[in-house]
Write a structure and sequence with these properties.
alpha+beta, ABC transporter transmembrane region fold, Rossmann fold, 3 domains, six-stranded mixed sheet, four-stranded antiparallel sheet, elongated
Length: 640
């Protein structure tokens, strides 16, 4: 039991330290708005002072204006009207100050959230592929929606409310001392007891709000997966199982949210109820002091208890207790916002994709035996090597890729590739064949440097691949994946995604090369047809053709085709294959395919099994050896 208590205390200290760090980071964002925030604090002070002055003025109003009028046979109300006008002016000043600081805080909050979203998205773009392979898309999206929304609520509402409440409590406390030290002592003792209860309730809700945010991210991730795979769910009648799994996750969220809000929702009613109790208690004690003629001690000295003083003090009592209840209520929003901010900062603190490369890819022309950079689209692709002495060396890109004894594992201790040695000569078409999980796509991921190798070497035109800047390396590679991603925008914009400076004519030429031009022309607005929902209105084959056209417009020296025609029917495949043959002309090409008919004309075919190359050679050579490839090609057994 003691061990559990120690662990709980250790966890609590860890959360408290994390919250302190989160608050410090949030305060840094306020620096850019310090002048506006200072104005907010000034307005809060004015608003609080206006409220206190109005409460204190009640004593003057009753004792100096209303009470004397009751004794006059012909009362003169002019003084009372002036006093009421003065009170109205004080209240109006407080209302204007409150309106101004609330509007300012909304502007500050939105500015900070914009900056946070910008930084979060910028960091997300710099993260390695590994991060997105290990985090659900829905959970990542939850950072931009739920976590950011809780932060908005804290910045725009909770923080100004807490500041306002603290200022009000201080000014009201001093005002109560000015009226009656005895009654103030009663209020303070009562509030101390009330705060012990509030602290216990608020402390219990904090941990559940943290768990609620994590559970919410998990639910969003699952919903995103189910929406993305809804067709698969229906095809395999998985609806009941999907609902059961969702119920488990949703029940967990419901339990955490219910526990958090059960404590949170009871705070305000409890504090208000105790506030009413205190109100009655102060009224009774004040009335007893007035009837008994008790001398009243205050900051102004000794005096008698009057009806006006009791009325002002009762108003101040409400003004003292209500902010405590509001702070208690806002505490839960702050805890939830800090949990969301902590998740946001966790994303921002993720290690970005490192790049220690220094070799870049440029366009250049050979003039008098020397390479001259063109700075445009003209010329050949050339590797630019800077040296320590400031000199530069240029090497024409040929598209030669070599692996030397490469080992790789996505998770430590679980190798995926073993001792891979291969080469692709410039202009060669190299095909990878093997069962799912054999390591075919992993090899292309290593060429792209989506992942870095554990052991061995990969050389590109004789250059260690780690020395090439990742952006330039990937610019030299055109990739057509099995899973096509189209973006909201026109067909032309989706093709131009391959090279943003491509002209309309170049995009059309690329579409013709991929044999996509004919179906694009049949769309309602042709190339200006707007696609949405990942191109949901197109067939899988048409989406794949656009993906091939996108790769074609990039005009890369090396192509990687990862199951590029697996989603296309055999008739369309024949059409696409002619376009792809033209696209592959003069380029080094890596092909991953289940359909062996698409790799038959490859210069080299490599058969992989459990991360090892077990056969390599031309189609005819491998058929002649009558090994695994022969059995696959003749249908003795099929790829899994």
């Amino acid at each position: 039991m003691n061990k559990m208590a120690m662990e709980k205390e250790k966890t609590g200290r860890g959360m408290e330290k994390a919250n302190r760090q989160t608050v410090k980071r949030l305060l840094r964002y306020l620096k850019a708005y310090r002048l506006r925030f200072a104005l907010v604090l000034l307005c809060i002070l004015i608003s609080a002072m206006a409220s206190v002055c109005a409460s204190l003025f009640i004593q003057t109003l009753i004792d100096d204006y209303i009470a004397p009028l009751l004794l006059e046979s012909v009362p003169d109300y002019s003084g009372l009207l002036r006093a009421i006008g003065t009170m109205a002016a004080v209240y109006l000043t407080g209302v204007c100050a409150t309106l101004l600081y609330n509007r300012l805080m909304v502007t500050i909050a939105q500015g900070i959230l914009k900056q946070i979203r910008d930084q979060m998205f910028e960091r997300m773009q710099a993260l390695p592929i590994r991060y997105f392979d290990t985090h659900s898309h829905g959970d990542v999206m939850s950072h931009y929606t739920n976590d950011t929304d809780t932060l908005r609520q804290m910045l725009a509402q909770s923080i100004p409310q807490v500041f306002s409440s603290i200022v009000t409590i201080i000014t009201v406390f001093l005002s109560m001392l000015y009226l009656s030290a005895y009654l103030t002592g009663i209020v303070v003792l009562f509030v101390i007891l009330m705060m012990q209860l509030v602290k216990k309730i608020a402390g219990s809700s904090g941990k559940f709000f943290v768990r609620q945010q994590a559970a919410l991210g998990d639910v969003n991730g699952y919903i995103e997966e189910m929406i993305h795979g809804q067709k698969v769910v229906k095809v395999f009648c998985h609806e009941e199982k999907a609902k059961a799994q969702f119920d488990v996750k949703n029940d967990l969220l419901c339990d955490d949210a219910s526990s958090a809000n059960a404590y949170a929702n009871v705070l305000l009613p409890v504090t208000y109820s105790l506030g009413y109790t205190l109100y009655v208690l102060v009224a009774l004690v004040g009335a007893f002091m007035a009837i008994a003629g008790t001398r009243n001690l205050s900051l102004a000295g000794m005096s008698v208890v009057t009806l006006g003083m009791i009325s002002s003090f009762l108003q101040l009592t409400r003004s003292f207790v209500n902010p405590i209840g509001q702070v208690s209520q806002q505490f839960n929003s702050i805890v939830m916002a800090l949990a969301g901010a902590s998740r946001i900062f966790e994303l921002m603190d993720e290690e970005p994709e490192t790049d220690e490369g220094y070799v870049t890819l440029v366009r250049a022309k050979l003039e008098d035996g020397t390479w001259k950079e063109t700075g445009g689209k003209d010329g050949a692709w050339v590797w630019k090597h800077p040296h320590g002495d400031g000199s530069l060396t240029y090497t024409q890109m040929r598209g030669e890729v070599r692996f030397y004894d490469v080992d790789f594992a996505y998770e430590e201790g679980k190798p995926v590739l073993h001792n891979i040695t291969l080469y692709a000569e410039p202009g060669q078409k190299v095909a990878f064949v093997g069962a799912t999980g054999a390591g075919k796509t992993t090899i292309t991921n290593l060429i792209n440097r989506f992942y870095d190798i554990a052991d061995g070497k990969v050389r590109y035109d004789g250059i260690n691949i780690n020395k090439i800047k990742k952006a330039d390396l990937r610019r030299s590679l055109g990739v057509v994946l099995q899973d096509v991603n189209l973006f909201t925008g026109t067909v032309m914009e989706n093709i131009r995604y391959g090279r943003l400076d491509a002209t309309d004519e170049e995009c059309v030429a690329a579409a013709k090369l991929a044999n996509a031009h004919d179906f694009i022309e049949m769309l309602p607005q042709g190339y200006q047809t707007v696609l949405s929902g990942d191109g949901g209105g197109l067939s899988q084959g048409q989406r794949q053709l656009l993906s091939i056209a996108r790769a074609a417009v990039a005009d890369p020296p090396v192509m990687i085709l990862d199951e590029a025609t697996s989603s296309i029917d055999t008739r369309t495949e024949a059409i696409v294959q002619r376009g792809m043959d033209a696209l592959m002309e003069g380029r080094t090409v890596f092909v991953i395919a289940h359909r062996l008919s698409t790799v038959k004309n490859s210069d080299v075919i490599m058969v992989l099994d459990h991360g090892r190359i077990i056969e390599r050679g031309t189609h005819d050579k491998l058929i002649g050896e009558k090994g695994t490839y022969y059995q696959l090609y003749t249908g003795a057994f099929e790829l899994e």
